[in-house]
Amino acid sequence: MDAQLPEIVGLLLAGGQARRMGGQAKHLLALRGRPLLAYAMERARPQVGPLLLNGPDSDGLSDFGLPIVADAVPGQAGPLAGILTGMEWALQHAPQCQWVASFATDTPFFPMDLVQRLQAERMVENADFARAASASRPQPVFGLWPVARAAELRHAITEENIRKITTWTARYRMAEVDFPTTPMDPFFNVNQMEDLTRLEALLEKTGEETPA
Predict the structure, then answer these.
(1) What CATH number is associated with residue 166?
(2) Which residues of 76-93 are buried (b: 16+ CB within 10 A; e: fewer)?
(3) What's the total number of domains in the chain?
(4) Per-residue pLDDT for 2 more than 70?
(5) Out of 10, 14, 53, 58, which could bridge 105 as a Cys pair, Cβ 3.0 to 4.6 Å?
(6) Which domain covers residue 84, as residue numbers?
(7) pTM higher than 0.85 for the full model?
């Protein structure tokens, strides 16, 4: 089966504040001479239809040649605001797409079949959403979101002050796909400078430039 699902909007979340790195934009950190965002783009693009970046243009996003959308609600509401932004963008610009798949841009080697497997499991379980997991730990930023829930999410953020993805999704049926962690956890993310060194060591150990 073709891994690309053109009816799904891909959303690269690049709006984090990276407080543990002095506010530096994590998606621009270099791994083997390339920004983390470049790896994330390579992995997301073949899996979806339209692909966009969520974050402030001041963070160097315009250099990557994708549509840039700032958060639809003010106040640094976190990944949920980014997900809402992707939903509302799809309603306006891609009405043929009923789903949004979200990806973290500080996690450069997420699975190449992520979206396909999330959609398949969601359909099997007849669930409202789907999310990834590894080693039985949820990875809520890597999820599949129905555009039809945009108004409900906007209400949750603006009227209920909900900020955590898991808090919002707890009221719905969630499907989960657990991905293997060998030869490395595909959801290894960079939160501090030491993580870049650890990731480089993992790549050396696996002997791969970009793990499958």
Answers:
(1) 3.90.550.10
(2) ebbbbbbbbbbbbbbeee
(3) 1
(4) no
(5) 14
(6) 8-206
(7) yes
